[in-house]
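Weekly modeling sync, notes
Attendees: AB, CL, MP (scribe)

Item 1: holo prediction request
CL wants a bound-state model with zinc ion before deciding which constructs to order. AB pointed out that an apo prediction alone won't tell us much about the pocket. Agreed to run with the ligand included and paste results into these notes for async review.

Input as submitted:
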Amino acid sequence: MDTRKIRIFDTTLRDGEQSPGCSMKLHDKLLVAANLEQLKVDVIEAGFAIASPGDFESVKEIANHVKGCTVASLARALKGDIDQAWAAVSGAARPRIHTFLATSPVHMQYKLRMTPEQVYDQAVNMVRYARNLCPDVQFSLEDYTRTEEEFSWKVIEAVIAAGATTVNLPDTVGYAIPEEFGARIKRVMEHVPNVDKAVIAVHCHNDLGLAVANTLAALRAGAGQAECTINGIGERAGNAALEEIVMALRTRHDFFEGISCDIDTTRIMSTSRCVCSVTGSRVQANKAIVGQNAFAHESGIHQHGMLANKQTYEIMTPESIGLSQSQMVLGKHSGKHALKDRLEQLGITLSEDALQELFGRFKELADAKKVVTDADIEALARGLEQRSSGRQKLVFDRFLATTGNTNANVSTVRLVVDGQSVEEVAMGSGPIEASFNAINKMLNLHVSVENFSVSAVTENVDAQGECELRVRHNQKVYLGRGVAQDIIEASVRAYVHALNGLLEDEQRMTANAVTMAAAAGGGLV
Ligand code: KIV
Ligand code: ZN
């Protein structure tokens, strides 16, 4: 059987970050990029450099850190965007500029207000411009699946002639159906005379739940690059999920006739967990490949079959995606080294300070709980993993809440604020709100809390509670997560975690303003 190696282009840090509530900070992005490098993706789309100074900084940092993959920045087909993308990725070992322009009638007429001829010229000119800067240029025909086919062939031929090394054909609005999409890609292969001079890529959205099926159909029809995100996160219903594409190719290599990729599948689970952790968005339990139930066998008949021979109900092994079988991990006599080892297996990297803190919390938990599972350790690590390496302004110390259905809810909270112990007391409609009010009083803060949720990490009554919330302040949103056996404590920890993000951001903005004022020759008075 002939083999054909395809490229995996990961856009978790760009399209994935565009999903509601999935924005990531620089530290988070570097963590995800390091995981993607270990997973061995071919291309990391690190962001959209012109979108904001923060985006520019993170693309640049990722470009400077990542050595094993191509690093791309998105750019509209405009000189300013392309210059900014190049400034961000030029330090990469393998830089790529990814520029795009819509080619469907509806986009050209209403969004761009351009004629097809103008779009054609703009695409060619901007690819040529980008190619003068960077040896690797990708061009995307946005809304390709609603583009008139013959027009698309002309644009593809022209951008390849202008120097595009990859041409991407996105299903921007998730409109395609697999047979139809595969047939369209096949016709591209047949009708574009210079198609062999570039790689044809596909980028599918999941509005009809067909993103992975469409991607696989396109790969069979000759596409050489699949664009995808970890856990399928992305705009609206998301993008094609990397783990599903890769495991389908691997598990059904008989059907896919030798199409393969370089992904180290044993890193899938840890990368998925890392993305959940930094975005605060979990995958549903029955999500293919990485959901909590993906390898669980509940029914008696299935369990019987599995005991007789795993192949009866298992088409891939948990080990192939790096899922550990061990549930029981460490006990109260385990040392820091063993904890560090376990974290590495779970794909979690912590700074020395965070590891020290985690170790303390782990010991407390091991004292209180009979069994400490991987899930407990992961939950404890999640809050710490998200922190930047700098010192936290607020550190939770203790709380005391009085609550009940017949008396007022009062909470006293003590935090260490910039090294000083501070305590406040407040009332609220429940003990959690009372605790948050005490913190607001202490810091003189006015913020709103959204998406508040508390869930149990494991299934028994001694389970830890994990709180997730978002704090909104000045139109920015900060994710907070906290874990503790007491759900009030978990909530307070989550609130403090989000506020640390907010205060860190404000400090950075003040520092930038001071620098700018100093550069302008003035001062802030
Ligand atoms: O969905 C889309 O069309 C995109 C392009 C920018 C590639 O994300
Ligand atoms: Zn997209």
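Recorded for review: The mean pLDDT is 90.
Action items: CL to compare against the apo run; MP to circulate these notes.
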